[in-house]
Amino acid sequence: MKFFPAQKLFSIFSNDMAIDLGTANTVVYVRNKGILLNEPSVVAVDANTNKVLAAGKQAKEMLGKTPENIIACRPMRDGVIANFKLTESMLRHFIRIIHNDRRTLIRPRMIIGVPSGITQVEKRAVEDSAKQAGAREVYTIMEPMAAAIGAGLPVQDPCGNMVVDIGGGTTEVAVISLKSVVFCRSVRVGGDEMDRAIVNYVKRKYNLLIGERTAERIKIDVGAALLDVNEEKQSIDVKGRDLITGVPKTVTLTSSEVNEALLEIVASIIEVVRVALENTPPELSSDLVDKGIMMAGGGSLLRGLDRLISKETGLPVQVAKDPLFCVVNGAGKVLEELDFFKDTLMSV
C-alpha cells in the first residue's frame, strides 16, 4: 500500500483557488483542475432580505431590467471592491457553484489578483471579503505580475519584460525583472470607461440614451482603436430612448464614429505606456527593443490597439494567447509552484 506524507495528502484533496476578481468578470482557477468558472462580476439580491437571487451571467441579464424589490449591480468598480457585502455574497455563490453546492470541510487557500495601485484599505477589503466567503488563507498578487506569468513571459530572468494589462476597470503597465516589478503604473481607465465614452458620444451626437450593455456590444462588434483605410466600413444599428421625444428609436453607428468616441480613452492608455517606458532603466529598455510589449486583459482585444501602441512607441507589440485569462492563469501557476513564485506575492 502506498502512503503519502500529510502535506502531500492535504494538497491532493485541497480546493485551493486562484481568483481574478475583475470589474467585468470573475474567473476562478482551482489547483490541479484549471479554470472552472468564468462569470460576469454581477450579483442580484432581494432588496428586503439581502438574499442572493442570482450571480454571474444570470444576474447580468437582469441589469437595468429589475423591479424595485430586486437590486442587480456590479459590486466591483475600477478593479476594487465598491460593495463589501455584495462581493462577499457573490464570491460565496461562485465557490458553491465550483463545489456543486456541497459544503467542503477543507477551507481553501486563495490567491487573488489586485490592481498595483490598490490602497491598503482596498487590499484589506479584498482579503476580508475572501475570508468571509470561506477562505482559510488569502494571498494577493499584482495583476500585471500575474498577467506576465500567465502570458508566459520569463519573469524570473534578469531581463526586461513589459506587460500592458487592460481590464474592465483599470489599465496596468509594468516592467518586470527577476520576479519583481521594476516600474509600474496603474490608471483607472479600462473597458468600462470605453463603454461610458460610447454612451456619452451617442447621447451627445444623436440625443439617444443607451445602456452600458448596449455600449459594450457596440465596442465588441465595431469598436476600433486604429482604422484601416483599406478595410470596409462597419456599422451597427443601435436602439435606445430618444431624449427629446421620450420614445424608443434606432440609429446607425459606423466604426469611424465609435473610433472617435474612444479616442480619449485610447490616448490615456498610450500615455501610461509612454510614462512606463520613460521610467524604465536603460539596460532593461534595450531588452524591450527586441522583446517588445505583451498585451493582456479583455481591453487588449479592441481592434487595432496593438498596432496603434506599436506605431506610437516604435516597439513590437503582441497580444497574449488567452488575454482574458492571463491574470488567473498566472495566479494559478503561482498557486501550483508557490515556493518558486512566493517572491511575486504582495506583502501584508
Question: Can you walk through the features of this model?
Answer:
It is a single chain. This protein is of the alpha+beta class. It folds into two domains: 6-145 and 327-344, Nucleotidyltransferase, domain 5 (2-Layer Sandwich), CATH 3.30.420; 154-319, Nucleotidyltransferase, domain 5. 39% of the residues lie in helices and 26% in strands. It contains twelve helices and 18 strands. It has helices spanning 6-12, 57-62, 84-98, 120-132, 143-150, 191-206, 212-222, 255-278, 282-291, 305-313, 326-336, 338-341, and strands at 17-21, 25-30, 34-40, 43-46, 52-55, 70-73, 76-77, 80-81, 109-114, 137-142, 161-166, 171-177, 180-187, 208-209, 235-242, 248-254, 293-296, 317-319. The strands form five sheets. A five-stranded mixed beta sheet has the order 3-2-1-9-10, sandwiched between helices. Helix 3 (84-98) crosses helix 4. The protein is flat. The two termini are 42 Å apart. Mean pLDDT is 88; it is low at 1-13.
